[in-house]
């Protein structure tokens, strides 16, 4: 049994989006302890945890399952949601809140596709919280389903490795699964985003407005992850990054918007900006924004905090160029060759920073534009440079992809 539990913990830890999901749950609910628990007939074990409360549980720690409400979720197959224990007729005298000292609590079942029970996505806090609202419950249910799908994908992929004849077949199976998963997530995610927009139109208390805004930001963050996954599958499965090419007269403003948004997200860091652009640049402006956003965020996350990140965009002598540089130690040559691979991270990069697709998508955007993407790193500076011939035709791009 312990071997099985250890394998389940390892499977959950292998899902790179789990820290992001736990962050989103905490933001939406306001709960300061959130975890994924493996629950069996005789055990309760933490597989992933976000604890800003100081509750004390770490990955692999266990509780007496009889002392938890997750046992009730396992037995009934239904979620347990408590806004305020002291006002809840069913749970105000229950032993579990007394043991663990919480007032608000939520536990959503996580199931395998065959219907068998795995465990729960749960959270608690000593303070009351509004958890029973339909939007919160829908979000939590979506997250539990997402964990279940990812968890099962890891198991299926590990099982398929012994059955498939080569690495190409394994990679294609994984990418097809990701494509289907990304597509299937769009419908429930769109419902959540529509719901938050409708709620924002109604008169709300200050606390409710804050909760709705956190939900909206979390949904946008998940949407960005889904878009990254869809871009990844198009790039890997032969479709390439889709472009909407045109002579763009407002590229300067588009690039300035990217810099302003990330400066707001990282106010403690300095960003230098230099733009020298003609009246128009022939490109896909939305994809160029995406390229700059990914490169700039990478520089802000990994660059030296005491040195500014420099952004330069210019067009001269028939060439359009975007460069992003940051200070800090040189990247070892062996790692430079890994930077543009999908799902690859530096050892110091946290899983919560994303799926590891940002630089891969940058490379695919460059390839679709028929451009080059270079990275140089010496002591004190790392620089990424996107460079393409300005104003050339779609045929040049097609030749570049051949």
UniProtKB/TrEMBL annotation:
Q: For this chain's UniProt record, which GO biological process terms are given? A: osmosensory signaling via phosphorelay pathway
Which UniProt keywords are listed? Kinase, Phosphoprotein, Transferase
Determine if DNA damage is one of this entry's keywords: no
Uppermost EC category: transferase
EC no. given is 2.7.13.3
Reactions catalysed, semicolon-separated, are: ATP + protein L-histidine = ADP + protein N-phospho-L-histidine
Q: Name one Pfam family in it.
A: HisKA
GO MF annotations in UniProt? phosphorelay response regulator activity; phosphorelay sensor kinase activity; protein kinase activator activity
Q: What Gene3D superfamilies does its record include?
A: 1.10.287.130, 3.30.450.40, Histidine kinase-like ATPase, C-terminal domain
Describe the location of the Histidine kinase domain by residue ranges: 180-392
This protein's name: histidine kinase
The protein's organism comes out as Massilia atriviolacea
């Amino acid at each position: 049994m312990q071997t099985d539990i250890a394998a389940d913990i390892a499977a959950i830890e292998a899902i790179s989006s789990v820290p992001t999901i736990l962050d989103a749950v905490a933001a939406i609910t306001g709960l300061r302890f959130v975890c994924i628990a493996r629950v069996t007939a005789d055990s309760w074990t933490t597989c992933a945890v976000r604890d800003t409360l100081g509750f004390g549980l770490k990955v692999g720690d266990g509780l007496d399952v009889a002392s938890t409400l997750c046992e009730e979720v396992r037995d009934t197959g239904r979620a347990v949601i408590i806004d305020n224990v002291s006002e809840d007729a069913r749970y105000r005298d229950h032993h579990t809140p007394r043991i663990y000292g919480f007032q608000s609590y939520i536990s959503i079942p996580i199931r395998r596709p065959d219907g068998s029970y795995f465990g729960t996505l749960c959270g608690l806090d000593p303070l009351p919280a509004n958890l029973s609202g339909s939007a919160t419950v829908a979000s939590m249910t979506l997250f539990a389903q997402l964990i279940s799908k990812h968890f099962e994908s890891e198991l299926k992929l590990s099982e398929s490795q012994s059955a498939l004849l080569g690495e190409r077949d394994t990679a294609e199976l994984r990418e097809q699964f990701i494509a289907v998963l990304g597509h299937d997530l769009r419908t429930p995610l769109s419902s959540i985003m529509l719901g938050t927009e409708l709620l924002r139109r109604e008169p709300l208390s200050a606390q409710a407005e804050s909760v709705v805004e956190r939900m909206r930001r979390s949904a946008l963050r998940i949407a960005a992850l889904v878009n990254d996954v869809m871009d990844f599958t198009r790039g890997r499965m032969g479709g390439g990054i889709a472009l909407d090419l045109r002579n763009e007269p407002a590229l300067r403003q588009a690039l300035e918007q990217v810099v302003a948004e990330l400066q707001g997200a990282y106010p403690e860091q300095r960003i230098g900006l230099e733009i020298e652009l003609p009246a128009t640049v022939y490109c896909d402006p939305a994809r160029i924004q995406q390229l700059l956003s990914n490169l700039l965020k990478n520089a802000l996350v990994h660059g030296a905090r005491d040195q500014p990140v420099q952004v330069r965009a210019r067009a001269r002598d028939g060439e359009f160029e975007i460069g992003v540089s940051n200070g800090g130690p040189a990247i070892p040559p062996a790692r430079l060759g890994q930077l543009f691979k999908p799902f690859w991270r530096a050892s110091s990069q946290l899983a919560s920073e994303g799926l590891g697709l940002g630089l891969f998508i940058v490379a695919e955007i460059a390839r679709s534009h028929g451009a080059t993407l270079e990275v140089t790193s010496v002591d004190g500076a790392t620089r990424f440079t996107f460079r393409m011939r300005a104003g050339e035709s779609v045929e040049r791009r097609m030749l570049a992809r051949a």
